[in-house]
Amino acid sequence: MKFKSHLASIMGVFAFLCSANIAKAESDVVISVDEGVSMAQPIAVIPFKGSANEDIGQIIADDLRNSGKFSPIDRTKLPAQPGSASEVVSQQWTDIGVDMVVVGQVTPAGGGYNVAYQLVDTLSSPAAVLDQGAFNVPAAQMRQGAHTVSDLVFEKITQIRGAFRTKIAYVVQRGVSSYELRVSDYDGFNAFSVVKSKEPLMSPEWAPDGSKLAYVTFENKKAQVVVHDLRSGSRRVVAALKGHNGAPAFSPDGSKIAFASNQDGELNIYVVGANGGTPSKLTANAGNNTEPSWSPDGGSIYFTSDRSGSPQVYRMSASGGGVSNVGGGVSYAAKSSADGKNLIMIAGDKVVKRDLTSGGTEVLSSTFLDESPSISPNGIMVIYSSTKGTSKVLQLVSADGRFKANLPGAGGQYKFPAWSPYLTKQ
Known about the structure:
By secondary structure, the chain is mainly β. It has 2 domains: 32-158, 3-Layer(aba) Sandwich (Rossmann fold); 167-419, Neuraminidase. The chain has helices at residues 12-19, 56-66, 90-94, 142-158, and strands at residues 32-35, 41-45, 70-72, 100-109, 112-121, 128-138, 167-173, 179-185, 192-197, 201-206, 212-217, 224-229, 235-239, 245-250, 256-261, 268-273, 280-281, 289-294, 300-305, 312-317, 324-325, 332-336, 342-347, 350-355, 361-363, 371-375, 381-388, 391-398, 404-407, 413-419. β26 (371-375) and β27 (381-388) form a beta hairpin. The two termini are 22 Å apart.
């Protein structure tokens, strides 16, 4: 078996996020399935042989399920539990409609563990190995090790880069004077606190390299946009115009931040350097304009405007001008997919996907008063906030609408989720 080390490529940012000496927060935001996967590819993820502090096989199965593209077989229905490809009997799996099986082993190694996996094709007899690998991982990062396998298996089958080693940022509000900006794994585990405040925190957005977060803080008794360096903990105010400053969004190259301000009475879109400076005004004399987000190539900015009497999504050039309606009706909070082909936005209080070529719109969510959608960097999953009873909760939906889940939080309002970029090298 030819083994490869896959964790050696992890960037410094990712290593920092895994080992940061930032205050740990309880991981009370964990995925709970609302609607299972339909019309997805069956796959079997066998419990990994050996003993570890995490159930590697279950984490991998959950990841693949969460993508909406796979339907892992329930463990109670597995016809066998092989530990390696040589133990896989193809007919046992093809008889139940399973063409792919993931097997693996976990063994102690240097204070951590060695994780070895094989992706097995059961359509051939004997079963054929499609992909395999092994790597060492510290005990404290076992979940990241499992997500690594998930990424590799997902990409091998779909030819789409996996995004299970990414993070999410979100705000937790408890009462009227307790706000916390958190970062966790995409599935809610390994949460830690970035900043706590007695004043509101809003709208976190990631820098393209994952090293910083821009967000809105009221800590100076007014709404200002700050950039928070996750490595050093340092913060810099980058937008503090008269009135309200909000809805920051990094440009794809990380050099600029678009934001909204009502310093002139109406909300308008501005752009400022990521390190601060003098903002440039992009909209004027056309109603209220807010919620900017960039196209993947940095050439355009999507934003919400009520210039037609109701909130709708528009697009303009990154320098202002050339404005066109792309929302197709009442819509707001638009984000572009990484390939620039679709917009994820809110319409009719639901998360919808709009095809920018055909103009077709697909409703993805089935929850109540949805807000703040954010897309995984591979465009496969969407996280957003919704209302459940009197609480705001985080929700996950696959971009094809096949899989829906919630990330229930304990004792607070969970708002403004933001999906990180990739935190590992390809």
